[in-house]
């Protein structure tokens, strides 16, 4: 009998690996041992929690801190770590740790998973990713301990570890309180530590190495360290800085007189909370003020920041900073009648523009369809529904208190949205990397059409 041979593309393998992780996680979370009271939760809630953990989203139908036992919390944390790094990355790391041969197919899979431009140095890159990740998470845990251990005793160590991993992976889940980090809205240590973890995870691994090289160059008195960075890093760092500052300024202005958020705070506290809100909307998902208390203007502003998200080749979601920057400057170049454009004196290739258009279009379609479907099964306000679906699509995890009220159809819609929001853009980029080799195929004749 002939053996059935299945040929999976890297796209299929990544999508299946996420589905497999979700399924295993949901089974474990549906066990009675996973809950505090020893009673199994409905499977739909276990499936929802597994999906939000693997997809590092952070939307929850059941309070994480009061529903799950230590075993359940460990399962969730492992899924967050796997989801943040990527299941393919974890499996590849296991192969390397056991000195298993890392073949060409494995290298291609890793190249696609991280959207890298070259196969050279893949194993070295992967080792640096693991070392850098665990180092940053360790630093974050130690910083959190200075606050949580005095407050919670020995439990504070576990809370610190959980928060550090969740923040670095941009998951936004915590086991401290039902109101996320609202009790620590003006605590500078918690705010700065969370911001450090979220930004370092969301800025992208490629930018890390460029920043390390820049620091070394600066120490050697080579003061053109930023100029020596790759174009990718320059765009990612600049876009991140602009969005953080602009976001903080926007929330500061829109919420200045809102007594439900920062209206009654001192000026330094208003600035601190506004910056945290700007940072957390970039796929972090932690809340220092109730999102349902934001003004409609701030909520709409947050939708824009959530949709953009963090930077490529990191733990963040969204369409990514570099993607949005390429699309915006491409549009400006088209308006000016230019065929191409440059950033930091480097011309952007047409393929990058096509990728940007595809990723943003698909992400918008997922968000739009999800919004329509969710509005059909719930009577919530449209702004709350949009907040939920954009948060799910961009794997942010912020909600205006809608997630716990969802019925089964609503939960299924958000589960699918979180999954597609996580794997959809990755699959698109892999498809582009695969199809770029087919440039010699016969093409249909070209004909001009009217646009706009």
What key attributes describe this structure?
globular, mainly alpha, 63% helix, disordered N terminus, 17 helices, 452 residues, single chain, two-stranded antiparallel ribbon
Look at the helices and sheets and give the structural class: mainly alpha
Q: In DSSP terms, counting alpha (H) and pi (I) runs of 4 or more, how many helices?
A: 17
Poorly predicted runs are: 1-6
What is the H/E order?
Answer: HHHHHHHHHHHHHHEEHHH
How is the main sheet built?
2 strands, antiparallel
What is Rg?
22 Å
> How confident is the prediction overall: mean pLDDT?
85
| DSSP summary, beta strand count | 2
What is the share of helical residues?
55-70%
Overall 3D form: globular
Tell me the number of structural domains: 1
* Content of β-strand: under 5%
What strand line-up does the widest sheet have? 1-2
Distance between the termini: 59 Å
